[in-house]
Amino acid sequence: MIRFAVPALCAVLITACAPGGDAATASDVTAGEVRPTLFVANKRGNTLSKIDLETGREVLRLDSCTNPHELATSPNGKHVALACYGGTTVDIFQTDDLTKVASLDLGENARPHGIAWHAGTAIFVTAEGRKSVFRITGPLSDTPEFTEFSTNQDGSHMLAVSPDARTVWTTDLGSKTVTRVNLDDASDLRTVTVGEEPEGISLAPDGSALWVSARGSNQAFELDPATMEIRNTLDTGAFPLRLSIRPQGDVAVTSDLMDGGLTVIDLKTARVARSIEVSGKAEAQQRFQVTILWSDDGERIYVAETASNTVAEVDYASGKVLRRLPAGEGGDGVAILP
């Protein structure tokens, strides 16, 4: 099904209070000013947070949608797209003041989750409830084009997109599979079983390898992106919920929820290089780390801690937690504006 949604041009002027009692209002945001910024989707609070990375302060928190999850910033940095997992839409906000400028409806039972905003101005998003992936071309135009590609797998949750935007890979939690979708030929599907409950997924910057973490089997897998053959399998920490490759392409990290740490994988050797303690096992359930995100320079790792409503900022070189940034209730999806 292809559906068109007219952008909802509604300025959201709600203010909220940041943790600790500091007022977070639109007046804190200077028009046109570009600052290092982190955006956090707060799935329990149904809000979207904006955090100034220079000061570490949450400068804005506004209502979003029901059960918001993954986020993606636009190539020009002017917008951030939010997957509304509790509904059927991808909502788009301006990054300067979080004004909502579009709400793109994917149709009945969509449950959008994994999302990427490609440099070619298209948004790619999984529709878990429809066992599919959507490509939304011209998402901010008057007539955005929706194209739906079936995965035929249960729980298509997270995704990765090729540099040329002609291929998408999904992790399918319910089916315990990873699926390759050829966007030039929707009938060309390649699916392989990968561990127990594969969820994290990341493509090497040069497209040479696809890495997946399987949270149910405490493993990470290297796959050939074209043939879907499993090249390497290695053990990680407990419950590796996410996997993210450093922008420089040399290492990947998994977010090991039950251990409260990160497993660092050397991609050249396909071996574990070291572990980084974020909260440690003793506080793992009090922190409940979920989504992970690299800074563009590869020097910092941001780890969403859903239970404590914080985001841990980790120095990659030393492995030290530099600070914990306040967010809303149940912070999960994160996106960065350099």
Automatic annotation (TrEMBL):
Record keywords, A-Z: Signal
N-terminal signal peptide: 1-23
Record's keyword annotation contains Iron: no
InterPro entries: Host-pathogen_enzymatic-act (IPR051200)
Keyword Cell inner membrane applies: no
Protein name per the record: YncE family protein
Organism: Erythrobacter crassostreae
